[in-house]
Amino acid sequence: MTDIAKAGIFTLGGRAVNRMGYGAMQLAGPGVFGPPKDPDQARAVLREAVACGVNHIDTSDFYGPYVVNQLIREALHPYPDGLVIVTKVGAVRGADASWNPAQSPAELTSAVHDNLRNLKLDVLDVVNLRITGAVHAPSEASIAERFEALAALQGQGLIRHLGLSNVTSAQVAEARGIAPVVCVQNLYNLVQRGDDALLNELDEAGIAYVPFFPLGGFSPLQSQALSDVAESLGATPMQVALAWLLQRAPNILLIPGTSSLGHLRENLAAAELALPEDALALLDEIGE
Ligand SMILES: NC(=O)c1ccc[n+]([C@@H]2O[C@H](COP(=O)([O-])OP(=O)(O)OC[C@H]3O[C@@H](n4cnc5c(N)ncnc54)[C@H](OP(=O)(O)O)[C@@H]3O)[C@@H](O)[C@H]2O)c1
């Protein structure tokens, strides 16, 4: 079995987590809507992740909606000591599978209570405020009212730590003026590196950077250079993409998503893959 601790650990909200984690979004049905075709398989993926040492799982009540949190509860509750479940709030799903902003203080409060109920927790480990706007790219606007609403719920003891998603550097600074921010979850991977400056800034501040779509998301990364490097190392392209992120900065925590046990094991094995300098040089040319 892979020793995922080889990827190192990071202190997320005062708790040490393996830098190799798991993102649960892919466990819902097609379009992240409705139940999966095989719920037993979905629960098996979650149990296998934890059995392999994953102690950082990313989720949301948007996934399904509710389906993924319920699968997590069914598969893993009572949760093992040390497991950090990070959820996010700020949207709701329509009956047509649409993703709709839900960012008023009342909607955020209701989302926190939904997550507590669906995950069967008295307190959520980490809640990310997911800013909507452009779909997968942040846009400038004050987030103070929204973050203050979550900070108030933290003050009531319903949330241990706060994070942000789909945000700019200015929004991180604004939020940090209200309450501590332990993680930021933005789009970033081997190809899409628009967040380099923010990633470096958060590294200096000791804040975790958790890239979403680390494998490219719904269309996994494809590149000849990536395939060539993978072949030369006897690894798969997805493993190289994950290993590159691990080597990019020590504050990067990985949450690759998969609904497959085979892909899960393949992805976790990237924790043991060290990329040599010549491979890094070739991979550096892929970035946008
Ligand atoms: N904050 C946000 O706005 C936001 C947005 C998106 C996602 N997220 C979080 O980030 C996590 C990761 O993102 P993601 O799952 O969307 O994208 P991802 O991790 O970049 O890629 C997942 C896709 O890659 C496939 N895949 C996974 N491992 C593979 C492998 N070894 N070989 C070939 N294909 C593989 C998966 O299909 P299979 O199921 O077939 O393996 C799935 O289609 C999510 O689970 C979610 O928790 C957050």
Spell out the blueprint of helices and strands.
Blueprint: E1 9-12, E2 15-18, E3 22-23, H1 39-51, E4 56-58, H2 67-76, E5 84-89, E6 91-93, E7 99-101, H3 105-119, E8 124-130, H4 144-155, E9 159-165, H5 169-176, E10 181-185, H6 196-205, E11 208-209, H7 224-233, H8 237-248, H9 261-268, H10 277-284
Parallel strand pairs: 3-4, 4-5, 5-8, 8-9, 9-10, 10-11
Antiparallel strand pairs: 1-2, 6-7
Helix pairs in contact: 1-2, 1-9, 3-4, 7-8
The structure holds NADP nicotinamide-adenine-dinucleotide phosphate (NAP).
NADP nicotinamide-adenine-dinucleotide phosphate binds next to helix 9.
Count of the domains: 1
Report the strand count: 11
Q: Provide a count of the helices.
A: 10
Bound ligands, named by name, code or SMILES: NADP nicotinamide-adenine-dinucleotide phosphate
H-E order: EEEHEHEEEHEHEHEHEHHHH
Strand fraction equals: 15-25%
Q: Quick one: overall form? A: globular
Instruction: Give the termini separation.
Output: 35 Å
Question: Helix proportion of residues, in percent?
Answer: 25-40%
Q: Enumerate the spans where pLDDT stays under 50 for 5 or more consecutive residues.
A: none
Task: Give an account of the 3D structure.
The chain is of the alpha/beta class and about 290 residues long. The protein has a single domain (about 10-285), classed as NADP-dependent oxidoreductase domain (TIM Barrel). Helix content is about 35%, strand content about 15%. It contains ten helices and eleven strands. The protein has helices at about 40-50, 65-75, 105-120, 145-155, 170-175, 195-205, 225-235, 235-250, 260-270, 275-285; strands at about 10, 15-20, 20-25, 55-60, 85-90, 90-95, 100, 125-130, 160-165, 180-185, 210. A seven-stranded parallel beta sheet has the order 3-4-5-8-9-10-11, covered by helices on one side. Strand 3 (about 20-25), helix 1 (about 40-50) and strand 4 (about 55-60) form a beta-alpha-beta unit. It binds NADP nicotinamide-adenine-dinucleotide phosphate (NAP). NADP nicotinamide-adenine-dinucleotide phosphate binds next to helix 9.
